[in-house]
Each structure stands twice: as C-alpha cells, then as structure tokens.
Write a structure and sequence with these properties.
The structure is a single chain. The protein has about 350 residues and is α/β, with parallel strands linked by helices. It is built from eleven helices and 16 strands. It has two domains: about 130 residues, Four Helix Bundle (Hemerythrin (Met), subunit A) (Up-down Bundle), CATH 1.20.120.420; about 210 residues, Translation initiation factor eif-2b, domain 2 (Rossmann fold). About 40% of the residues lie in helices and about 15% in strands. The longest helix is centred in the middle third of the chain and has 30 residues. The mean pLDDT is about 95.
C-alpha cells in the first residue's frame, strides 16, 4: 500500500501526486508553510489526506515556533493552513481538533505542548487508516459479486492516509473474495482517475479499465456496471454531497439506469452545520488546468474558462452513504446525525 503521508524525523513526508503515475517522488516539508503550499498545489489531495496534512502542519508549525507569543503564532499557523482549499471540510475538522488540544494544553511547558501536538497529528493519521478499513468493511457487502464498479476521481490510499474510502470499499470487496473489476473515469481536468486511481489499483492487481468522463453514461446504460462508488469532500446535513466535478452527472446517469450510487466517506466529512449542499463553498481553480494538459496548450489563447473543482450531488440521487460507523440511508437528516453522534462517542 502506498505511503501517502508520514511524520519522519520531525518532517512531513508525502508522495507528490502531481508527478504520478510517471514518477514516484516524495516531498519533504520542514515548515508549516511548505505543508500549506503542498495542499494548495495538490501535491497532496483528497479530503481525508489534506486533513492529516493540516494536523501535521499545525504540529510542525508549533515545533518551530518561539515560546514567546505562542498564542499569536499558533493562530497564524492555523489560519494559513485553513486558507489553502475551501471545500473539503476534513481540513477544518483537523485544524479545529488541533486547536482544541492546544487550548487544553495552554500553560504547560512548551516541550510538552509540542510533544502532545505531534502525537495528536500522528494519531489523526493512524485513525484515518483504521477508519478507511472500517468504511471498506461496511461497504463491501453492497458491491455486487461478478460485476463492474464505476468510480470517479481518486478516493483511494492517495486521498487518505492509506487504504482509501471509495477504493477502500472496492479493496475490501476483493479481499472478501468477490470477483469485481473497476471502470475509472479519467476525471478531467486534473485527471485524478487516469493518473491516480488506475495507478493505485494496478499496484493491487485489481482489474481496471480507464474511460473518459463522457463514456460513463454509455456504460451505465449497458448493464455492465453493478454500482457506482465515489468519495466526498463535504456532506451536508440533508445528505447532499460535494465531490469532484463530474460526480453529479454520474449520479444522475446512475439513477436513470437503475444503478446504485454509493458515497464512501468518514464521519469527519459530515458537515451537519450546513442544511443543504447549496451552502457548501466550491473551490475555483486555475484556467490553465482546462486550457492545458501537462503543459501543452489545447485551447485557443484567451479562451474564457470556468473551472469549479467540485459539484454537489443532491441527496435524492444517493443510494447510501458508507461511513466507519455504518451505512446511512434516507432520510439522511436522521441517519447522518445518528452516525455522527456514534462517532463522537467513540472518539
């Protein structure tokens, strides 16, 4: 299994996902500013993974901060990391978790504060791997044996600290003995499906076929697809799901063709403060991601571009939401609240 992010010798080490699949290179961050830039530049991406990165970034920042004026420095560290990407709620969840611990530690010796924050960041990583395995265990029974699974973007080990959410469900289904293969949408414009999902599943020996995004409807209609499994960056209280751009279209096509559409995500991705997906902030990314592919211009100079990184799938298209605490189904206002409450008790 790929090591997405680790804490090694008081440095944050992460695989550079912008180089995959052609080059397996690791980036070492020695400051919280470097961690923030890695998140912003999508060296590391995926909601759970950037949550882990944020926690480690906070710990790294405090490790190198001056004891005098620590409160102000801590606030600046958290603010810098929080401004990197707006949609994935796991980022803010992790920062808030580190803030709460810092508040409990105020007044203690600086060495003790640093040690506890570092351990907490490591714990966030370890918990994420365990959570993903639990998501896989809960989701595996929903995957039809002998059928193809369609997935969009990358919600695998690379998007988490390890194992993955959507790909964790697929991995767990295979580990349970089911015969399944995968169709991976390429996921324009950043090509997370083509570059990352296919690479990951090839490492595991899971049969995978790459398709372009506009082929999904054709294959959903064909009867070959047994279910769709995707990840999520934020889930509102009513079950609306923000995920990589293009997910909404896949969900509508799945409903039209009677194919179950599952969302796999940890409870930390639930944002029950938002009544619906209409309130989820959508990140806008650079026009060059659309007008260029790997530095090669593919559109006329001066082309107007819209490049939202995410879209919101209304809850009515979501068959079920798979979490580490269990599987939620409509009405989501009730089922998601119950799962979040269980997660809070466990933690």
């Amino acid at each position: 299994m790929v090591e997405t992010i680790q804490w090694i010798d008081d440095r944050v080490v992460m695989i550079d996902q912008t180089r995959l699949p052609l080059e397996e290179k690791y980036v070492t961050c020695g400051t919280y500013e470097e961690v923030a830039e890695a998140i912003r530049a999508m060296v590391i991406r995926g909601a759970p993974a950037i949550g882990v990165a944020a926690a480690m970034g906070v710990a790294l920042g405090v490790l190198h901060a001056d004891e005098e004026g620590m409160d102000a420095q801590f606030g600046a560290i958290c603010d810098t990391l929080a401004k990197t990407r707006p949609t994935a709620v796991n980022l803010f969840w992790a920062i808030d978790r580190m803030r709460r611990l810092y508040e409990r530690l105020r007044g203690k010796p600086i060495g003790e504060i640093r040690r506890w924050l570092k351990e907490e960041a490591r714990l966030v990583r370890e918990e994420d791997i365990a959570i993903c395995r639990a998501i896989g265990h809960n989701g595996a029974p929903l995957v039809p044996d002998g059928r193809t699974v369609l997935t969009h973007c990358n919600a695998g080990a690379l998007a988490t600290a390890g194992y993955g959410t959507a790909l964790g469900v697929i991995r767990a289904a295979v580990e349970s003995g089911k015969q399944v293969d995968v169709f991976a949408d390429e996921t324009r414009p950043f090509l997370q499906g083509a570059r990352l999902t296919v690479w990951e599943l090839q490492q595991d020996g899971i049969a995978t076929t790459l398709i372009t995004d506009n082929m999904a409807g054709h294959f959903l209609k064909s009867g070959r697809i047994g279910c769709v499994v995707v990840g999520a960056d934020r889930i509102a209280a009513n079950g609306d799901v923000a995920n990589k751009i293009g997910t909404y279209a896949v969900a509508v096509l799945a409903r039209e063709n009677g194919v179950p559409f599952y969302v796999a995500a940890p409870c930390s991705t639930l944002d029950l403060t938002l009544a619906s997906g209409d309130q989820i902030p959508i990140e806008q990314r650079a026009a060059s991601e659309v007008t260029h592919i790997f530095g090669q211009q593919v559109a006329p100079a001066g082309t107007a571009v819209e490049n939202p990184a995410f879209d919101v799938t209304p809850a009515r298209y979501v068959t079920a939401i798979i979490t580490e605490q269990g599987v939620a189904r409509a009405p989501y206002e009730e089922s998601l609240r119950g799962l979040r409450n269980e997660a809070s008790v466990v933690r």
